[in-house]
Amino acid sequence: MSEFLKVENVDVEYPGKGFLSKPFKALHSVSIELGKGETLGLVGESGSGKTTLGRAILGLAPVTAGSIRFQGEEISKASRKERQRLSRDIQVVFQDPYTSLNPSMEIGQILAEPLEIQGMKGDEAKKRIKELLDQVNLPKDAIHRLPREFSGGQRQRVAIARALALAPKLIVCDEPVSALDLTTQARILDLFLQIQQDTGVSYLFVSHDLDVVRHISHRIAVMYKGEIVEQGEAMKVSKNPDHPYTQRLLMASPVPDPDRQAKRREERKALLALQAQAAS
After folding, report:
1. The whole model's pTM is what?
2. What CA–CA distance (Å, rounded) separates 20 from 182?
3. 57: which residues sit within 8 A by CB, 6+ positions away?
4. By C-alpha distance, which of 218, 252, 278 is closest to 42?
């Protein structure tokens, strides 16, 4: 694998809340790699550290040890000016498509903002905005509408368009479909896949849902209590995992068939009992 994104032995530590409180270590020696045009699914339950890892790559979480290299460049301690330059190549799509968009700005203004920061204005910016709306399958009249006039799925398409504005090479997707209903989730995931096929962009796709990351990922890394506990090819990790925690995640994934869901629930209970017995 070419060294496109390489995270090596990264720790993230936050100060304790009280005067004498010990620091809280959110990540413990985390290492992952991501290739060009590849999707790495990062999965784990709430509090596992998966979002913190995404934030560390974006420069939004304090890296206290280890290395983050993007296209051979060390970025874990990048300055604000260096981060502005990196924003051309590294973008993010957040979980909530409404709170991540300025409710008082028209869609055209939202999409123009990153272009203007990088010096693109006038007719060139207007042309790019129209291209972005086409790319995420939104109508041309969206340019003069406000975020509240769209559904959740459409707002997420706007957020994706904004992330794509500068033609980035890497997008950190932080739970980008968890706030959407199942039908809309499927459409947005298909949109991500189509965009990757068309542009060659890489995704670090953060989710708590093993079924979601299976659908979109080439490889999967599983996080538990701030550590990577399992990594591998997507089908292997999501269908036949080795680590007990990944096995519990798989059992917790909902299925549409009530009988299969009931059976999976019983299997999960049996697995938890077996693991508790082994630990005692």
Report:
1. 0.88
2. 46
3. 5, 7, 68, 70, 75, 90, 172, 204
4. 218
Q: Where are the alpha helices (DSSP H) in the chain?
A: 50-58, 80-86, 107-117, 122-135, 152-164, 182-199, 210-216, 234-239, 244-252, 258-279
Residue 200: per-residue pLDDT: 96
* Edge-first strand listing for the sheet containing 90-93: 90-93, 170-174, 202-207, 39-43, 219-224, 227-233
Report the C-alpha gap between 58 and 257 in whole angstroms: 39
Confidence of residue 241 (pLDDT cuts 50, 70, 90): very high
Q: What is the C-alpha to C-alpha distance for residues 222 and 122, in angstroms, rounded to an integer?
A: 45
For the chain, first and last CA: distance in Å? 41
Q: Are 112 and 129 in contact (CB under 8 A)?
A: yes
Distance CA 169, CA 21 (A): 40
* Mean pLDDT computed over 200-205: 97
**Stronger pLDDT, 10 or 267, i.e. the higher one:** 10
Q: Is the pLDDT of residue 256 over 60?
A: no
d(CA 135, CA 260): 38
Q: Cα angle vertex 172, ends 167, 177, to 5°?
A: 105
Answer for the pair 140, 100: CB distance below 8 angstroms, yes or no: no
